[in-house]
From TrEMBL:
Pfam families reported for this sequence: DNA_photolyase (PF00875), FAD_binding_7 (PF03441)
Coiled-coil annotated spans: none
Domain Photolyase/cryptochrome alpha/beta: 7-132
Binding residue positions for FAD: 226, 238-242, 270, 392-394
Record text on cofactor binding: Binds 1 FAD per subunit.
Site (Electron transfer via tryptophanyl radical): 304, 379, 402
The protein, known as: Deoxyribodipyrimidine photolyase
Length: 469
C-alpha cells in the first residue's frame, strides 16, 4: 500500500455521471485528491447505439466539469479486474471507491475487484447506487423478493423516504474540497463512432448534469399538470428525466426528495413511477436473465415468431428497417421498426423513437402490445430494438417492461389485455396532433394499408394464449 498522504483516491464512475449529490465522490474528496475513471466494459451486453451516443455526450460534460477542479477523467475499455489494478499501481492510488450497481455479472465483477484490491492493501469502499432502495432492504415476510408491484411499493415507500432524506441531507451539491492530484496531465477526450442517426438525436436530446437539473426544475414547476396530462400523447407533461436517471446525471434520491417537497396532486403519482423503476431493478437483481428468458415459464410454449439472426442486423444503417427475407414475419417486423404498419398510432410511436431516441410511455405500451399480440412476434425482438434505439435503454426497465407488455413477466399486464391502437388514439390523441406530427402522410393515398386486421389478429392472439394457459 502507498502511505503517501497526498496519494490520490480513484473514483470509478459507472451510471453516476455527475458531481452533485454523488456519495462516492464525497467519500473520495474526504480522502484527498481524486482521479476519475470510466471503463467501457466487455463483461456485459454491449450498450445500444442511441444510449451509447447519450453516454458519450454525458461523459464529455462530466470530463469538462471535473477538469475545472483539476480532476482528470481517465477512459479505458476492457476488463476492470485488469484495468483498475494497473491504474492503482501506475498512479500510486491509496483508495478506490464507487457507487453500486445491481445486475450480474457486474455485481460479481465488483465483489471480486474489491477483494483483490483489499488484498493489495488498498482501502476500498462502495456506496448505495442509482436506486431508491437496495434490493436486500425490501422483502416479503418470508424474506423473499416481491413479485407484485403494489405490496412492493407499500413496503419500499418508507425506506425510499428515509434513504432520500439521509443521502440528500449528508451530501453537498459539489464537495468544496474537490481537487485533483498535482502534475497529472488531463487526458484528451476520445473520438467515438456515432450512430448514423446521431444528428437527429442531437436535435432532440440534451445530455449532461446541468440539463438534468433544469429538466427536474421545469417538471416540478408544472407537477400539478402531471395527473391529467401524463397520458396525453400530444402534451409534454411527463418528466423527460428517464435518460438522465439512466446515466445518473441526477441523483434518484434528489428527484424523490424534491418531488416529495412540492406536495402537489401529482406528487405521489410520480413517486410511484420512481418506485416502479426500483421494482424493475429488484426483479433483475433476482432474475439476472430477464432480458432473454420468460419469467413465467408457460410462455416458453408460446408460438411467438423468432429469428435470432435479426439481432445481428441492428448495427447496420439500413437493414433493420427493410425486410431481408420474403416472408410475413420479417416483413411485419421491418414495418413495425420503420413505422409503416398502416396503424397510425403504432407508426407515430415508432417514428418518434427513431427521430428522438425516446417515445411517450403510452405509445410504448401500444407498440409493444401490437408487436407481441397482433403480430405474434417475440417480445425479445422488441426489447432488442428498444435497446438499440432508446437513449434511456436501461438493463432492468427495458426487459421488465417488455415482459410486462407481453404478459410473460412478473405482475404483468394480463396477456388478454390487448391495446387497441385505434381506441387508444381516440382517447389519448383525440385531435390526432401526435399522429400527424410523426406521420405526415397519414390520411393521404401514400399512407399504407394496415398490415394486419386488428380484430382478427386479436382473436388469434387470445386463442394462442388459451392453448398455453
Amino acid at each position: 500500500m502507498h502511505d503517501l498522504q497526498n496519494s490520490p483516491t480513484l473514483l470509478w464512475f459507472r451510471d453516476d455521471l455527475r458531481l452533485s449529490d454523488n456519495v462516492a465522490l464525497k467519500w473520495a474528496t474526504d480522502h484527498g485528491p481524486v482521479i476519475g475513471l470510466f471503463i467501457d466494459e466487455s463483461s456485459y451486453r454491449s450498450i445500444g447505439a442511441a444510449a451509447r451516443w447519450w453516454r458519450e455526450q454525458s461523459l464529455d460534460a462530466l470530463a469538462q466539469d471535473l477538469s475545472s477542479y483539476g480532476v482528470p477523467l481517465l477512459r479505458r475499455a476492457g476488463n476492470p479486474l485488469e484495468i483498475v489494478p494497473e491504474i492503482v499501481s501506475e498512479m500510486k492510488i491509496k483508495a478506490v471507491t464507487w457507487n453500486r450497481r445491481y445486475h450480474q455479472p457486474l455485481c460479481e465483477v465488483d465483489a471480486t475487484l474489491k477483494k483483490n484490491l483489499r488484498n493489495m492493501g488498498l482501502e476500498v469502499h462502495s456506496h448505495p447506487g442509482f436506486l431508491l432502495t437496495e434490493p436486500w432492504e425490501v422483502s416479503t415476510a418470508a424474506g423473499t423478493p416481491y413479485k407484485v408491484y403494489t405490496p412492493f411499493s407499500k413496503a419500499a415507500w418508507d425506506i425510499a423516504e428515509v434513504n432520500a432524506s439521509k443521502i440528500t441531507t449528508n451530501s453537498e451539491p459539489v464537495p468544496s474540497n474537490l481537487t485533483g492530484p498535482a502534475n497529472v496531465e488531463m487526458p484528451s477526450i476520445p473520438e467515438i463512432e456515432q450512430p448514423f442517426w446521431a444528428k437527429k438525436l442531437a436535435k432532440n436530446c440534451a445530455p449532461g448534469e446541468k440539463n438534468a437539473s433544469e429538466k427536474l426544475f421545469d417538471f416540478l414547476e408544472h407537477l400539478q399538470d402531471y395527473p391529467g396530462g401524463r397520458d396525453s400523447l400530444a402534451r409534454s407533461a411527463t418528466s423527460k428525466l428517464s435518460a438522465h436517471l439512466r446515466f445518473g446525471e441526477i441523483s434518484i434520491h434528489r428527484v424523490w426528495a424534491e418531488t416529495a417537497a412540492v406536495g402537489s396532486e401529482g406528487t405521489n403519482l410520480f413517486l410511484k413511477e420512481l418506485l416502479w423503476r426500483d421494482f424493475a431493478w429488484h426483479r433483475l437483481y433476482a432474475l439476472p436473465h430477464m432480458d432473454t428468458q420468460n419469467v413465467r415459464m408457460q410462455f416458453n410454449r408460446f408460438g411467438w415468431s423468432w429469428d435470432p439472426s435479426e439481432k445481428d442486423k441492428l448495427n447496420s444503417p439500413s437493414s433493420p428497417l427493410t425486410p431481408t427475407k420474403a416472408d410475413q414475419f420479417h416483413e411485419d417486423l421491418a414495418a413495425w421498426r420503420a413505422g409503416t404498419t398502416g396503424i397510425p398510432l403504432v407508426d407515430a410511436g415508432m417514428r418518434e423513437l427513431w427521430a428522438t431516441g425516446s417515445m411517450h410511455n403510452r405509445a410504448r405500451m401500444v407498440v409493444a402490445s401490437f408487436l407481441t399480440k397482433n403480430l405474434q412476434i417475440h417480445w425479445r425482438h422488441g426489447e432488442e430494438w428498444f435497446w438499440e434505439t432508446l437513449v434511456d435503454a436501461d438493463p432492468a426497465s427495458n426487459a421488465f417492461n417488455w415482459q410486462w407488455a407481453a404478459g410473460s413477466g412478473d405482475d404483468a399486464s394480463p396477456y388478454f389485455r390487448i391495446f387497441n391502437p385505434v381506441t387508444q388514439a381516440k382517447k389519448f390523441d383525440p385531435d390526432e396532433t401526435y399522429i400527424r406530427r410523426w406521420v405526415p402522410e397519414y390520411g393521404t393515398p401514400s399512407y399504407p394499408d394496415p398490415i394486419v386486421d386488428l380484430k382478427e389478429s386479436r382473436q388469434i392472439a387470445l386463442d394462442a394464449y388459451s392453448a398455453i394457459k
